[in-house]
Specification:
- By secondary structure, this protein is of the alpha+beta class.
- It has one domain (3-201): Hypothetical Protein Pfu-838710-001 (Beta Barrel).
- It is 26% helix and 37% strand.
- It is built from 4 helices and 9 strands, in the order βαββββαββββαα.
- The chain has helices spanning 17-30, 88-93, 147-162, 185-201; strands spanning 3-9, 34-48, 59-65, 71-76, 80-85, 99-101, 107-116, 119-128, 131-141.
- Strands 1, 2, 3, 4, 5, 6, 7, 8 and 9 form a 9-stranded antiparallel β-sheet that branches.
- The longest helix has 17 residues, at 185-201.
- The model has no long low-confidence stretch (mean pLDDT 88).
Length: 202
């Protein structure tokens, strides 16, 4: 699996999002990174219906990633993630009495995947209900499972190859896969969700 960092690429004043995305792609082409495929992720938020006046409202995010076509990632506020078979979507249709879709529509991410040595890089756009929200980058370092052991290396790669103004998010304080104590697909999806929610607020 390796370790992944997901972050937003800022659009500076005087430039368009398309220019910034094309610049990042050209830099990857320049160093010899190979385009290998397209990718997409979708995210839909569901809100619990309160069972009583005192009941707390929780939000569950149902996410799909083209890298894992047979899985559904279900993230609940607080970094809890359940990884289920894609047929979980059928179950959500039967939970209408407990969870309803939140306003705003589905968030979609899509772009191009590159390979460069031990790194894979995904560059893509984020849209919500057809409205552009931002540019997202994923940098994945394959040989290492220890976040602390390679986070600085990922940061150095991102700033040297993609954009020197990139600021990586802080190292995840805890991993979702507590039993194995190593980075997993669920941790990657959690980072995507944090970026999506941050873009919605901006």
């Amino acid at each position: 699996m390796g370790v992944t960092a997901v972050f937003q690429l800022n659009v500076p004043d005087g430039k368009t999002s398309q220019q910034v995305m094309e610049s990042a792609q050209k830099k990857l082409d320049f160093v010899g990174a190979q385009k290998v495929s397209s990718w997409n992720i979708d995210c839909e938020a569901f809100q619990s219906l309160p069972l009583s006046a005192e009941s707390a409202i929780t939000v569950m995010y149902v996410m799909h990633n083209s890298e894992y076509p047979f899985l559904t990632f279900n993230l609940i506020e607080g970094s809890t993630c359940m990884v289920a078979h894609s047929s979980f979507d059928l179950l959500m249709a039967k939970l209408k009495a407990f969870y309803v879709p939140r306003k705003g529509g589905k968030t979609e991410l899509k772009g191009t995947k590159y390979e460069y040595g031990d790194f894979t890089v995904k560059v893509g756009s984020v849209t919500q209900a057809s409205n552009f929200k931002g540019i997202i980058i994923e940098v994945h370092y394959l040989p290492c499972f220890d976040v602390n052991g390679c986070w600085n290396l990922i940061n150095e790669f991102a700033t040297m190859v993609i954009d020197r103004t990139i600021i990586l998010p802080t190292i995840p304080s805890s991993l979702i896969d507590v039993k194995l104590d190593r980075f997993s697909e669920a941790d990657t999806m959690n980072q995507y969700l944090q970026c999506i929610n941050s873009m919605k607020k901006s």
